[in-house]
């Protein structure tokens, strides 16, 4: 396993357990303790973990993997979800996208879609986003018109946050908002880890006629720190697997349409982001 893959696994272990020992990582990865020490030191130098005697720990209780380390997680599910979301978008629509690996894949599906290439100037979809990586990657697509909100960038996610996001969006009326989330539950609706990202995503949803949540099955039935939207203000959930009967009943009671994406075709996976380091 190359170092990038090892770092992904280490960060997931830290996120799940809060702290790990060198011996635990060595056993999980099947590598020497010397290699583990180098990997933990590399993550600590990047400010992603706290190095401890004999291991490493998460930086805080609301631990968040940086976007570039999320690329490979649930990759096939995200491709399938993105394809299903793209099928819900019609030519000429304006679509709001927040940041994250799933919405980045949605943007790529929209960018590759021949169905959405309409009109003499081939402007098939307008994407309004607070995600710098999506804006950069889609700027080369001749049938995609990109509008970027204002705001201050977060290093963890490439998303613009702050009051300038809402100030820019209030002048728009979007057909559809597609939101990536960190959690979706009956009690708290759509949630994310960072309150600034929650505010920005809420602003995108507020100016949309239809709100789609794109979330793989690992996000369902859980809630995280900051609420984006209550469940009854979501129109469609697109996910990759059938949900439990109880959660299906909660969705129906809230008026949320459930779309279960077909499995991704062989060989498809999340493509790389706009830089060699890039990842809901």
Automatic annotation (TrEMBL):
Keywords: DNA-binding, Transcription, Transcription regulation. The keyword Transcription applies. It comes from the Bacteria. Residues 3-58 form the HTH deoR-type domain. GO terms for molecular function: DNA binding; DNA-binding transcription factor activity. This is Alkaline phosphatase. InterPro entries: Carb_Metab_HTH_regulators (IPR050313), DeoR-like_C (IPR014036), DeoR_HTH (IPR001034), NagB/RpiA_transferase-like (IPR037171), Tscrpt_reg_HTH_DeoR_CS (IPR018356), WH-like_DNA-bd_sf (IPR036388), WH_DNA-bd_sf (IPR036390).
């Amino acid at each position: 396993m190359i170092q990038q893959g090892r770092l992904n696994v280490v960060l997931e272990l830290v996120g799940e357990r809060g702290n790990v020992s060198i011996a635990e990582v060595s056993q999980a990865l099947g590598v020497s303790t010397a290699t583990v020490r180098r990997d933990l030191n590399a993550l600590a130098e990047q400010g992603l973990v706290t190095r401890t005697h004999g291991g490493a720990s998460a930086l805080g209780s609301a631990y968040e993997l940086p976007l570039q380390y999320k690329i490979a997680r649930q990759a096939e599910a995200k491709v399938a979800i993105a394809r299903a979301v793209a099928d819900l978008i019609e030519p000429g629509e304006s679509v709001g996208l927040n940041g994250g690996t799933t919405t980045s894949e949605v943007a790529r599906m929209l960018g590759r879609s021949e169905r959405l290439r309409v009109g003499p100037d081939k402007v098939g979809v307008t994407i309004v986003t607070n995600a710098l990586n999506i804006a950069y990657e889609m700027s080369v697509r001749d049938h995609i018109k990109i509008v970027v909100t204002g705001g201050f960038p977060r290093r963890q996610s490439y998303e613009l946050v702050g009051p300038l996001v809402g100030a820019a969006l209030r002048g728009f009326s979007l057909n559809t908002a597609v939101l990536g989330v960190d959690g979706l539950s009956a009690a708290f609706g759509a949630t994310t880890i960072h309150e600034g990202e929650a505010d920005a995503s809420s602003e995108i949803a507020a100016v949309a006629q239809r709100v789609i949540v794109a979330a793989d099955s690992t996000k369902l039935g859980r809630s995280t720190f900051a609420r984006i939207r209550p469940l009854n203000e979501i129109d469609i959930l697109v996910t990759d697997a059938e949900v439990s009967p109880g959660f299906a009943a909660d969705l129906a009671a809230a008026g949320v349409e459930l779309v279960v994406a077909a499995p991704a075709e062989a060989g498809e996976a999340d493509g790389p982001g706009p830089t060699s380091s890039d990842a809901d």
